[in-house]
Amino acid sequence: MESTPDSLGSELENPFTYKHSKSFATILHALKSSLVLSTYQTGKVVIFSPQSEDKLIQLPRNFRKPMGVASHGKHLAVACMSEIILTHRSNNAGKSYPQKKDVYDSLYLPRSSWYTGGVDTHDISYGKGGLWAVITQFSCIAQLDPRFSFLPKWKPNFISELRPGDRCHLNGMTLKDGIPKYVTALGQSDKPGGWRDQKLDGGILMDVESNEIILDGLAMPHSPRLTGDDIFYLQSAKGELWKYHVPSKSNELICEVPGFARGMSFYNGFLFIGLSKIREDSKDFGKMPIASKNPIAGVAIVNLRTKQVEGILEYQNAVKELYDVHVLPGLTRPNILNTMSDMHTRAIITPQKIFWTEPPKKEEQENDINQSEVEKAED
Questions:
Q1: pLDDT of residue 15
Q2: What is the pLDDT of residue 1?
Q3: Is residue 150 situated within a structural domain?
Q4: pLDDT computed for residue 287 by the predictor
Q5: Which residues of the chain have pLDDT under 70?
Q6: Which residues constitute the domain of residue 299?
Q7: Phi-psi map region of 136: left, alpha, beta (phi>0 left; psi -120 to 50 alpha)
Q8: Please, where are the H alpha helices in 197-252?
Q9: Containing H/E element for 27?
Q10: Which are the contacts of 355, defined by CB distance < 8 A and separation ≥ 6?
Q11: How many domains does the structure of the chain reveal?
């Protein structure tokens, strides 16, 4: 494993050190792709890009409790604490980025936010009708609608009513033909927080269309991903990758990974799987099978041909928990801006051209601060 410090200087507010196997960088480099990770625990969206065949570059950005990540074409969405931020990619904006010109091959810029409120959004995915989202607090799948916090489209048949309470900890979702098809949940409870009663072995894999429970007794399942006739999913508490073959109804353990597995993305025969450490303040810490295997935080690359872990990235500090992992095909040095600083407001994009405005003058910043104090006093 090669130890690799962060290399972006002032762009990293809180540098995270990590190490990775040479093969991890080699695979990303060969795929000509980057990875975007979400770590709600540190409040960061992180992009890893291949600098060469054996080195990576890391770019963390601040986001408020980022969870699910989804992309479609040039669109990239990030589910956050009380909103889903929708960004759009511009190659020219990346190349002309004022702080580092001719460095990035593309730039994801915030275009809009959907304010959902604190509904604990987990997996999100683009499909028919736009973005689909798992609304965990309300135990349902929803779409975005300008009239509401979210527009419910489906809930498990054992959930009696649409109310807050996180009854079954619905978390994972995968689509078929643009429509949600399979989901994972940590239990079948219809009472608030009831899934916790069988937290370690009450998980389910469920068919959305038929409401059939395909598998039960799972160890905290997450991140179902449909590829052909196969549903790949994670038994997080065991640190295991599994495959369910739909036509034959067969269930197969593919391999173990060295962490609490959550977040998964498929590309070109590889699965990129997020790894987390176990929360030491959890009363169930010692009960999880993965706890005895010295779990790490990072990403594992599984080659589906060999059914082996062929690349590892491990955080050495700061990051302990990841939620999602998403491949950005064809992008070898992308950038993303958040809404927590004014940098994204300086990009003015028209159909013909991109303009970068100057930073606010000092007196304008002072006026903004003074106005903020007035607003606080009025509150």
A1: 62
A2: 65
A3: yes
A4: 85
A5: 1-15, 281, 284-286, 362-379
A6: 2-340
A7: alpha
A8: none
A9: helix 22-31
A10: 347, 348, 349
A11: 1
